[in-house]
Amino acid sequence: MWFPVFEYVDEWTLPLLPENGGGAPTQIVDACFAVGLDLRWRRYGARLDLNRLQWTLSLLETGDVHLGVRLEGPDSDVDPSAGDDDRTLDFSVGGVGLHMDQTLPEAMVVVADIMQTELAGYPPWIQWPIEDKRLLLPTIIDGEAVWRDPRTNRSVAPIGQLTE
To answer: Which end of the chain is more exposed for a tag (fewer CB within 10 A), N or C?
Structure first.
């Protein structure tokens, strides 16, 4: 199977709640910020040290953006016997629909979907965000990026404004 080879035009590593993007596409940085805010709430599963999470944005010549998330810093405070296994959170995803020309709501939904899929689908297995025992789904309703309850079809909160 042949895969096209693309060069990264630029790459940025940002804290979970970036104050600025240092030249990265603004709506992608703002989407990461909103999703980062929501990561504080409604998680179930392994511990996640949000203070150590970083985003990596890699811009390709096509305008596509690869998204990465990893834990920064030492993991000596992690005790696997206590269920703390956040050392394994390190992923990079490309070709999933994140593009520098997307609107902010579109980018928010894609970033939220990537993060949710990676947290729930791979170790350390974190369900996020949840309502009762259901995963909320990121979607756009009336031009706004929201978390929607799939059972009730209710908009729980705009992405970036999730609470307990």
So the answer is: N
Cα dihedral 14, 45, 109, 62 sign: positive
* Token duo for residue 89: 């959170």
Quick one: tokens of 164? 């307990």
| pLDDT tens string 140-160 | 999 999 999 999 999 999 999
SS (H, E, C) the chain: CCCCCCCEEEEEEEECCCCCCCCCCHHHHHHHHHHHHHCCCCCEECCCCHHHEEEEEEEECCCEEEEEEEECCCCCCCCHHHCCCHHHCEEEECCCCCECCCCHHHHHHHHHHHHHHHHHHCCCCEECCEECCEECEEEEECCEEEEECCCCCCEEEECCCCCC
| Cα distance between residue 23 and residue 65, in whole Å | 13
